[in-house]
Recover the amino acids of this structure.
């Protein structure tokens, strides 16, 4: 089934009730009814249809968060194309790679970036570049106003977008090499959304505070699908604002966020039992939630955060229980495999390990992606011969069935919920004049959970300036990837085989941000 058709079928009978209400501190609150969502996404879908693109064309989107950006996502589903969201922090080198690799038929960017983005897009052969701004201006909406608010091809796209039809491509990196586009089908997304709707007990009178970016799985799929598939309202923040979220909690019932959002909410004096009395559920994921945050939250609000675990390639895999009858929500664990998801822990030789033993987490299920875009070899590498996806996460299942993530076999730093791949940053540093080699390691950080710290070795006789390294990187890549600190050392620690011992570097810098930041968390590249 086309994912939009399934979401549309769950809209409330009265389409004139509010579906989304904006809540940013600057500017008036805007209300979008369910009818608005349906009509506006139809107009955008008609605009896309008028371009006569081949089915499943990629629609690449790098825009600031807005309700209209969500409508473009829905329109892409309706028109049978493939949504390709891009982090707004990405700079030209990164965008050039994604556009070159995905070859989108349409690129949508903000007006302020039109000059450089359109140049990249036209050079790569993209014919259509539109603009969309978070104040509802731009050529995309101007063009869409000329189209009907009824999308006649919905039924057609239903039948042409069988379960295997692609709905989205999300770029994600691996240990080595460039980013890979994880291809997710309508069936992948819908099956996961339906499971979460039941498992987390979503109901029509829920009100979700949506305060996450919508270019990753968490904000785009888990949050939006959850609300739309339950016909419940969203309070919409274009940017996370802790004080403002606390103000809105009495009007809401569900909140979801990466751990950094919980840490920042805890710093708000207004976060009290009274402010959260109306809330039904707090969900955390995308990065390890520190036990300290889990406990502090329970003490301050009386609510127990439900932690879950997922990936771009699979959407959600596990969840702590929602219903007390299914067991307590355990801090430091990511709960049980979701219904329909197979999860096993394996040794390096592929042998399935018994409960309690630590190994690589492998998963299977209707939510697992269709492969990496135009990278069949990479896809094959990441699946076992019997069809299980190797997550790159290291964990164990305890005797009661709870999954614990204890590390990562992939060299990855998760900073404030964003993934930073050391290999990419090290390659950029190594290309700088005078640099012999470098290593990026993740160290505990009180706000972002983990941040990257770079260690750089100069070539013999060369001088390398640590601040200069950071400044040069800033001009090249997304800001969240920039190491928070850079140290120039005489050499990197190596083992007898000559392999860089990142664990020693991590140890050396683990108290850089104070002992308060120190709580065990998964570490990559061990
Ligand atoms: C911002 N900065 C970060 C950062 N976010 N640094 C490291 N890690 C981050 N995550 C830095 C910027 O580089 C900038 O530095 C400074 O902070 C201010 O930038 P900002 O954009 O104003 O920051 P802020 O709005 O405070 O953003 C913080 C945040 C944001 C936590 C709200 O990072 C965020 O929304 N994170 C959520 C990510 C997410 O949704 N992940 C889901 C992935 S899906 P400077 O030096 O330039 O000033 C997934 C699967 C799953 O993982 O299971 O869900
Ligand atoms: P991404 O590729 O951005 O989708 O990031 C997926 C990765 O985030 C997973 O492979 C995990 O390493 C990590 N992750 C997601 N949720 C959790 C969680 N609750 N605890 C620990 N790690 C998590």
């Amino acid at each position: 089934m086309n994912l939009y058709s399934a979401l549309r079928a769950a809209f409330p009978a009265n389409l004139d009730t509010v579906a989304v209400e904006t809540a940013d501190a600057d500017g008036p609150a805007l209300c979008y009814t369910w009818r608005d969502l349906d009509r506006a996404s139809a107009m955008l879908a008609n605009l896309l249809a008028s371009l006569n693109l081949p089915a499943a064309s990629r629609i690449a989107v790098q825009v600031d968060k807005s309700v209209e950006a969500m409508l473009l996502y829905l329109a892409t589903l309706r028109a049978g194309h493939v949504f390709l969201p891009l982090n707004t922090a990405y700079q030209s080198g990164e965008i050039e790679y994604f556009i070159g690799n995905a070859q989108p038929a349409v690129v949508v960017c903000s007006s302020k970036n039109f000059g450089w983005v359109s140049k990249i897009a036209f050079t790569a052969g993209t014919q259509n570049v539109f603009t969309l701004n978070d104040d509802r201006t731009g050529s995309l909406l101007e063009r869409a106003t000329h189209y009907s608010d009824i999308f006649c091809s919905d039924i057609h796209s239903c039948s042409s977008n069988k379960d295997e039809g692609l709905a989205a491509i999300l770029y994600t990196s691996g240990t080595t090499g460039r980013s890979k586009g994880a291809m997710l089908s309508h069936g992948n997304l819908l099956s996961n959304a339906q499971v979460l709707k039941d498992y987390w007990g979503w109901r029509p009178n829920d009100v979700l505070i949506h305060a996450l970016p919508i270019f990753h799985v968490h904000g785009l799929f888990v949050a939006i699908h959850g609300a739309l598939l339950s016909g419940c309202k969203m309070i919409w923040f274009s940017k996370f604002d802790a004080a403002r979220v606390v103000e809105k909690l009495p009007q809401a019932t569900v909140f979801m966020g990466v751990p950094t959002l919980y840490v920042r909410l805890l710093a708000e004096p207004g976060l009290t039992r009274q402010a959260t009395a109306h809330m039904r559920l707090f969900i955390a994921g995308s990065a390890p939630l520190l036990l300290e945050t889990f406990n502090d939250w329970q003490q301050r609000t009386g609510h127990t955060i439900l932690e879950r675990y997922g990936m771009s390639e699979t959407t959600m895999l596990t969840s702590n229980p929602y219903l007390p009858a299914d067991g307590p929500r355990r801090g430091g664990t990511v709960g049980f495999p979701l219904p329909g998801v197979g999860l096993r822990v394996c040794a390096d030789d592929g042998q399935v390990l018994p409960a309690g033993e630590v190994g690589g987490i492998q998963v299977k299920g209707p939510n697992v992606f269709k492969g990496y875009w135009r990278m069949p070899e990479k896809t094959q590498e990441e699946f076992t011969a019997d069809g299980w996806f190797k997550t790159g996460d290291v964990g164990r299942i305890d005797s009661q069935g709870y999954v614990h993530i204890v590390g990562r076999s992939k060299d990855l730093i998760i900073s404030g919920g964003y993934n930073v791949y050391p290999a990419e940053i090290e390659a950029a540093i190594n290309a700088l004049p005078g640099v012999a080699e470098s290593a990026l390691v993740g160290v505990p950080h009180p706000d972002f959970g983990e941040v990257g710290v770079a260690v750089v070795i100069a070539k013999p006789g060369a001088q390398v300036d640590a601040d200069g390294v950071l400044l040069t990187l800033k001009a090249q890549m997304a800001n969240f990837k920039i190491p928070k600190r850079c140290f120039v050392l005489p050499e990197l620690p190596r083992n007898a085989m000559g392999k860089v011992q990142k664990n020693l570097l991590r140890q050396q810098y683990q108290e850089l941000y104070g002992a308060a930041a120190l709580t065990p968390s998964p570490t990559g590249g061990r």
Observations:
- The radius of gyration is 23 Å.
- The CA atoms of residues 223 and 389 lie 24 Å apart.
- Residues 34-50 form the longest helix (17 residues).
